[in-house]
Amino acid sequence: MTLNRRDLLRAAGAAGALGAVWPLSAGLSPAQAREAAEALGADYDPAPFTLGVASGDPQPSSVLLWTRLAPEPLAAEQDLPEIVEVRWTVATDPALRHVVARGTVAASATLGHSVHVPVHGLTPGRTYWYAFKALGRTSRVGRTRTAPSGQVSKVRFAAANCQAFHDGFYAAHRGIARENVDFVVHLGDYIYEHGQVGGVPADHVRDHEGGAVFTVADYRRRHALYKGDASLREAHAAHPWFLTWDDHEVVNDYSGTGGGAPFLQRRAAAYQAWYENMPHRDGASGDGALPDPVIHRRRGWGGLLELTVLDLRSYRSAQNLKDGTILGAEQKAWLKQGISQAPDAWHVWANSIMLSQLRGRPGGSYTFTDQWDGFLAERREVLGHVHSSGLEDLVVVTGDWHSAFVDDLRPDFDDTSSPVVGTEFTAHSVTSGAYSASWNATNGPLMGAANPHLKYFEGNRYGYDVYEVTPERFSAHMRVIGDRRDPASPVTTLTTFHVDRGKAGSYEDPATKNSPAQYRRD
After folding, report:
1. Residue 438, Cβ density class (10 Å: 0-12 exposed, 13-18 middle, ≥19 buried)
2. Which tens digit of pLDDT belongs to each residue from 287-308?
């Protein structure tokens, strides 16, 4: 059976939705499903390493290597033995001639034939290359980097979030792959759990492969679909990643401590598939048990930067409760202890949803209480502890909003005399749809008037942030793409904000201050 993009899109348009022709509709084999997915914009590496390679959680002498064997990436089950031996190699050159570590690991069907290799004994602050071999085939070569152990003069890293597959191609990840950065932080909504949206090609460039996802097989297939974008695989292969998650990795606006048995089963399936498809360390015990990923962690980078990765889903209560928690008791105690014992460095929190207060209009209610606005007491407690402990040089990098914000952080956002204790940069989304240009133009000034701590808002663009950190200054470069419908869309810098060491609060670079925005505070 031969399928081509033009025929599929023509059929989709005639049907009024893509569901009638999507590859996993009845009657298509897994191979035909893959062919159809590729005709609709997906693309894969050669089997069995179709989903590419990745690395994550870099430390001075160690990094985590990942791949997953999926000869037919959109199949519910892979036609593979129960256990497949996978060889891995790490070298100091792209040709893998100067090998510094190698080994063999078992990829089991229990964990989707995924491979997570913690490589130890590496040299701090060094670039390495790696690859995998299995079933007579060799993967693409990936590049990674260990964290430095001594003082460094600069750190550069990128942050990405919210990459709805149906909303556009991943030109932003293509840009990230080409950036000269030490690592990437992904702030959540790596996949979306809902079903098809239709409207291809008029309103969307592509679509999900089926309905809403509930089982491990469903979530595996959804992750495989998203990795069907070549630019995402390229970004994974180019740099080591740190990862957190938000809600759509499971289901919209979920609370990790709520719901009955059906939800708990769905969450367990989502967490397992997430782990199987991510370069994440510490996701499973050594005996092959099913994973229960621990997200929150603290990592240093050469004494210049301390990165704190937060998990704002797994332990949260319902929102808008007097004693509600977004962190959970254990993670909150861990975070506060880290604040109290913080080293002399830049302190960066990887935060999946907005920490700053956001009212929609003067005197109005909070825009969303699924973010920290739904956990007021805990936010005051945490930011109050930042102030009372004397922590300086706090920068919070955030996703979720599909728009860019720059905010001052205060223990009490309603009190303009409350001290500024840090800066929050909320980044544009990779593809996920933002509000309309007319909504942004109308509501940007209203949000600015309602939130005295809000310095900047821009919601008409898509992309990612690059952060450049020196002992004197933290700079946020907002990279934006020209068109989500173009997989090779060029990347430009919309604007740059700076934070000076020892001085809380940010300011826009004079060279970019005339760039388009729907609100900026003079």
Report:
1. exposed
2. 446 778 999 999 999 999 999 9
Q: What is d(CA 189, CA 294) in angstroms, rounded to the nearest whole number? A: 17
387-433 tens-digit pLDDT: 999 999 999 999 999 999 999 999 999 999 999 999 999 999 999 99
Q: What share of the chain is helix, strand, coil (3-state, %, to 5)?
A: 25, 25, 50
380 contact partners, CB below 8 Å, separation of at least 6? 411, 412
Distance CA 147, CA 133 (A): 26
- Greatest pairwise CA separation for the chain in angstroms: 69
Q: Outline where DSSP puts E strands in 60-98.
A: 62-68, 83-91
- Gap between the Cα atoms of 248 and 477, Å rounded: 26
Structure tokens at 322: 């007097």
Q: Is the pTM of this model over 0.85?
A: yes
Spell out a b/e string for 153-188, using b for 16 or more CB atoms within 10 Å of the CB, else e.
eebbbbbbbbbbbbbbbbbbbbbbbebebbbbbbbb
| Rounded Cα gap, residues 315 and 319, in angstroms | 12
Residue range 457-482: mean pLDDT, rounded: 98
